[in-house]
Amino acid sequence: MSATGIGASVRRKEDFRFITGKGHYTDDISRPGQTYAYFLRSPHAHAKIKRIDKAAAEKMPGVLGVLDGAEMQADKIGNLICGWMIHSKDGSPMKMAPHPALAVGKVCYVGDPVVVVVAETLAQAKDAAEKVVVDYEELPAVVDCAKAKGATQIHEVASDNVIFDWHLGDKAKTDAAFASAKHITKLDIYNNRLAPNAIEPRAAIGEYDTGSESFTLWNTSQNPHVARLVIAAFVGMAPENKLRVIAPDVGGGFGSKIFIYNEEVVALWASKRVGRPVKWTAERSESFLNDAHGRDHATHAEMAFDADGKILGLRAHTVANLGAYMSTFSSSVPTYLYATLLSGQYAIPQIYCEVDAVYTNTAPVDAYRGAGRPEAAFVVERLMEVAARELGVDPADLRRRNFVKSFPHQTPVIMAYDTGDFDASLKKAMELADYKNFGKRKREAERRGKLRGIGFSAYIEACGIAPSQAVGSLGAGVGLWESAEVRVNPTGSVEVLTGSHAHGQGHETTFAQLVSERLGIPIESISIVHGDTDKVQFGMGTYGSRSGAVGMSAIVKALDKVEAKAKKVAAHMMEAAEGDIEFKDGTFTVAGTDKSAAWGDVALNAYIAHKFSGQELEPGLKEGAFYDPANFTFPAGCHICEVEVDPTTGETEIVNWSAVDDFGVVINPMIVEGQVHGGVAQGIGQAMIEHAIYDDNGQPVTGSFMDYAMPRAHNLPSFKVGMTMTKCPSNPLGMKGCGEAGAIAAPAAVINAITDAIGTENIAMPANAATVWAAIQKTQPRAAAE
Amino acid sequence: MPTVSMTVNGKPVSANVDARTLLVQFLRENLRLTGTHVGCDTSQCGACVVHVDGVALKSCTTFAWQVEGANVTTIEGLANGDKLHPMQEAFRENHGLQCGFCTPGMIMSAVEMVWRKGSDLDEQTIREELDGNLCRCTGYHNIVKAIHAGARAMAGDRGPAQQAAE
Fold first, then answer.
1. Chain B, 15-74: which have a CB under 8 Å from a chain A CB?
2. Is A467 in contact with A631 (CB distance < 8 Å)?
3. ipTM > 0.95 for the complex
4. Residue A234 belongs to domain spanning
């Protein structure tokens, strides 16, 4: 292993600009003649718009435009869309309601954008927005997903507010498995609604150039090409070749910056209307209102066991809240990203899952770190833990008894697990957690008046979201391959243009490590270019832990072509047969001779083209590739959480976190461990403190960092992180993906630990001090009676 | 419009600004020092922390005129020329950042934490002192490590406010 190659914890190349304040985030960019947009949003969860009076606002100082949805429609700007088709049980397509970027006729959630004011300064835009009069006729609001079906109708297309009722698996066979069961474990679960809260708020700058009749959009996007495609082809802003999307440095995404949002469409349109660049940056309170939220599932789940503790079947019924409109990929999250993972790490013969997706008068809900897979892992791992207690079996033993042990393994819910060693990660996690001495620690804690508990989460996920043919058959409107272009310069330095996008993952370092390893050149000579549709070929972007397994595989494929072409050049240079050229550590040699040519010489010769004729070989050294994998990847592992609860207050402290993950081949362990830390922190946040709450009228209660509990440094422990490795067989590097694992594994581990500590079978997330204290009050009489 | 004057990163600056102008707006928009970030509107996230006369301050909740005549240091002014500040080095060495957006505020808070609490900081102190800075990427694990190491590397640096007080 070289110091900068695959497997080395290389310090990040991108860090210098971030630690010195020289990054370029969207809000850091100012365009000549730039103006500012401020959005007037609905204060009501559900209302008809009776009248909009803009006259006073238009006369305010500095105002350049006060624009509404009717004007947008008159300009033939189309609606936002959801790009994943789901069909109901009866074969009917999902009921996608019109989603205009500025509301037309009615508003459907608090924060729904109604009017945009564009002015010379932001303060002037805000002042003018005060003068806009909107008359609303309030309608009853639907908030709770469990009560949405048949409540006040929100959209014309969905008479009972049900978007689809979908299912997966064989109901009859699953019911038969349950009929023969010796034991059935049942659980009702609410997977709490979360606000994504990347620390960089969303932002957009729209600019229209009258000379070339083309638009440029700078925005906080995880996938600029997808944004361009949707805004061109569906919203109809401009032809695709007349729209450039640039996603510069992006300050965290976690899914929330995948989607195509109202404000970026409006910034583009308004820039043409006012003839000047238009900038919008969300305030945090707007982020709480408008960024797509995550989770919000209510599930009843059951698991059936035979007399030996072997799982016979699993069935689940889930109601998923998709909010007021269908966000870009919302329909895929509670369906194919969720129910397909309900087999967990276990050989389960029969699984049946029904999902009802409903509209409510709340912010749209879409993918948030893990997207469907945390919900699935939570169902499976909570059921396993509760079953172990009911059956009187050690939770590790019950898991081991049911692990999938041979691969490939076809589950009853589409996924074919390619490889893994679940026993190995469980064993290593138990060692890391010092499981065998837990009893001692529990007794010691009891002497201090504390309740100590331990919880497992043996999760699996499907990552590297692809392959295109498979996701297409499941309803995806796009392909999920990735692209790369490797440009070798005449001096031998290299630019890699990737369709992936980094917003904290460190691609500028890890992708360069791959190129450094392959070409034997220093990572300083390698630049990774992403995030600009004018520079980079079409690419699918970063989400679903796919940039390694899919994005880097595309780079491997392009590097293969570069190497093949470079060998041809070297053969001409050294007057040898192409088949005799060998390439290692940056040097080309002729087999069996002492002839050699350095990488830089070959690169230069490829461009000066003096050693071969253009008829024999094309000059230049630049190759592109599109890579579409053969299967999803299946990262898996085991996290063990140990907690101490103070029974007098319900305060819970995580005293030990042991994570062992199998991510396949790891490029940069330092970066991978960082991904685990961040994911676990978000999972602990969900389990213990985070909850995006609306009141019964649909008013958001958690609208700022004062009300929404974000994990802070003192809420979290240090983490013990270990790894096991089985190589992924479906991509050339053997990688699986690591970005979401922590968020998928953590919630079940926390709740399993807390319920173990306080002696209850179920507790709602977030299990904050008040919730835990209340649960203790219920369990203590029982404990006393024993 | 009132005139505000102050010293920013060692340079005297002066401008006529709307009285509502916040210090962070003055830094980002008037001076184009965009390293200081805005991550919230309730003074909770700490992405906007700068030093005013050696004290960490949230520039998103301070009017520019409130620091009239003060000595302001932003993340852009922390390094000594080409030589990074030891806390900047520690964040890079310990992978204490991912997306980088909270990082300038984290580093400015961390430096002032060392000035107040000394260079031998234990984990619990660091975690408690970070109450005013939010990070969504790192789970704080490596930020805590970075501050621990950065503090050691700053041994002997008691900061301008403490030095002035003595």
1. 18, 20, 28-29, 32-42, 44-45, 47, 74
2. yes
3. yes
4. 31-139+201-251+257-290
